[in-house]
Design goal:
With 139 residues, the chain is mostly beta strands. The chain has no helices and 13 strands. A five-stranded mixed beta sheet has the order 5-13-12-8-9, with no helix packed on it. The termini are far apart. The relative contact order is 0.23.
C-alpha cells in the first residue's frame, strides 16, 4: 500500500494492482487504477464488539463496545426499537471511555432485544450489535 492524494484527502491507503513497465507512455487516470483493501487512516473501528448476553431478571448487564480511530470516535447506543440511549433512565446508563459500556441495572423481561453500538468520527462509522435475553428466575 502507498498513500495517494485524492482531492483534498491525503489519508487514503491504496494497493497498486498493476505495475506499468518502462514502455508505458501516457497519463494514468484514476479509472486506470484498481484499488484493493483500501482503508481510510484513522477511520472509526470497533475493536471489541458487544456480545450476545443472557441474564436472569433483576441482574445487572454490561454490554461493551471498544473503539479506535483518529479522532477518537463518538459512541452511540440504540435499543431494539432503534431508540438512542441517552442515559436519562437511571436504570440504563452509559459508562466507560466515551460511553463504551451500556449498563442496565435491575434488568427486566422488557429489556430483551438487540442493542447496537455505533462508532463515528469525521472519516467513517462502524456498528456492531448484540442480543440481550432476560429470562425469568428458574424455579
Amino acid at each position: 500500500c502507498f498513500s495517494v492524494n485524492i482531492g483534498a484527502r491525503k489519508d487514503f491507503e491504496v494497493s497498486l494492482v498493476a505495475v506499468m513497465g518502462e514502455s508505458y507512455k501516457g497519463d494514468i487516470s484514476i479509472d486506470d487504477m484498481v484499488f484493493q483493501d483500501c482503508a481510510v487512516k484513522g477511520s472509526a473501528t470497533i475493536t471489541v464488539p458487544p456480545t450476545d448476553t443472557t441474564v436472569i431478571v433483576g441482574s445487572e448487564v454490561k454490554l461493551t463496545c471498544e473503539v479506535t480511530g483518529n479522532p477518537l470516535p463518538t459512541i452511540t447506543w440504540t435499543d431494539f426499537k432503534n431508540t438512542t440511549i441517552t442515559g436519562d433512565d437511571p436504570r440504563i446508563t452509559l459508562g466507560g471511555q466515551g460511553g463504551s459500556i451500556l449498563d442496565i441495572t435491575d434488568s427486566r423481561l422488557t429489556d430483551s432485544g438487540m442493542y447496537t453500538c455505533t462508532a463515528a468520527n469525521d472519516k467513517s462509522s462502524a456498528s456492531a450489535s448484540a442480543h440481550l435475553t432476560v429470562q425469568e428466575q428458574p424455579q
